[in-house]
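Troubleshooting log. The previous run stalled partway through. Resubmitting the same two chains, unchanged.
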Amino acid sequence: MANQVLPLVKLIEQFARLPGIGRKSAQRLAFHVLDMPKEKAQEFAQAILDAKEKIRRCSCCQDLSDGELCPVCRDDSRDRTTICVVEAPQDVMAFERTKEYKGLYHVLHGLLSPMDGVGPEQLTIKELLARLGSGEVQEVIMATNPTVEGEATAMYLARLLKPMGVKVTRLAYGIPVGGNLEFADEVTLYRALEGRSEL
Amino acid sequence: MANQVLPLVKLIEQFARLPGIGRKSAQRLAFHVLDMPKEKAQEFAQAILDAKEKIRRCSCCQDLSDGELCPVCRDDSRDRTTICVVEAPQDVMAFERTKEYKGLYHVLHGLLSPMDGVGPEQLTIKELLARLGSGEVQEVIMATNPTVEGEATAMYLARLLKPMGVKVTRLAYGIPVGGNLEFADEVTLYRALEGRSEL
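Second attempt completed without errors. Output:
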């Protein structure tokens, strides 16, 4: 289109690049931003910049963090004998919503997938092994998604960790097979935690 | 939740405030932003700021504009004898997508709605009347949505403009009654333009 207001077109394009946002939704969102008070729009823009600027990986669990250690690793009231191993930061958020898990986490940032060229060195497995060195950790819960890659990663890690004298468990199949952990409801996730079995 | 990474939570909240974006979609979008290269995220933030900073109303048609006059009013090739009156800037975009309409627009920024306290003085009717003063305009097309408020606004304007010696027409009912003009497809909109009838 020749007759376009460029800043508006650019904003629509930015929204349209987001996952799951089509052209008409992008237009609706852009007009919504135009209708916002100026300070609200500035807050929105600042939130995007801050998220990129301030968020990094926790030096311990590799979850997203706004400091050297993430809030969970900083929290003295957490049970340091248990580590829940997950694929992504979204999974940590899902477990935290159950309000039932009191241990620590370890975020792999991916799953083993030889087809996609993801081997053990692309995940944060080295960092996980380093955490087991102190002998404080007694149990590692494999909480990867119940998919082919999730199962394979859990089995691989279990074989790696068991010789180190640590108990390795797997989430119970309360979680629907083939589903996605991130979207499980709180109760299902809690049941899955409770019913975990040794690998 | 106590254990939260604040910049991430804030970004999720910002997305969740947008219309049609639920909590889980907001989370998905926030993580997408975190995964963006830094310069792409900065572009996104800048697009929001630019839209608020640079976009104002065209001094002629009241559509959104990045200058004193909008691209349509600036365009010498447009037919200045015809004005298409619409409710909102989104409607102008919909007509421009048909690539068939060559006249000018006038954006009312609302519809008459006594129930909601919107009277003629809340719309840009004064500005529309000023445009007719020069005698250049021969036809005004009422292209408000085919809803109760849209019809009422069209009738009100027709009664106001006819004594000024200007031809006042209404979009044909190619557009589904009760529907929303913004989401009409190009062909339907074009048919509606072609079949317009005098009020």
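Takeaways: The radius of gyration of chain A is 21 Å. DSSP finds eight helices and seven strands in chain A.
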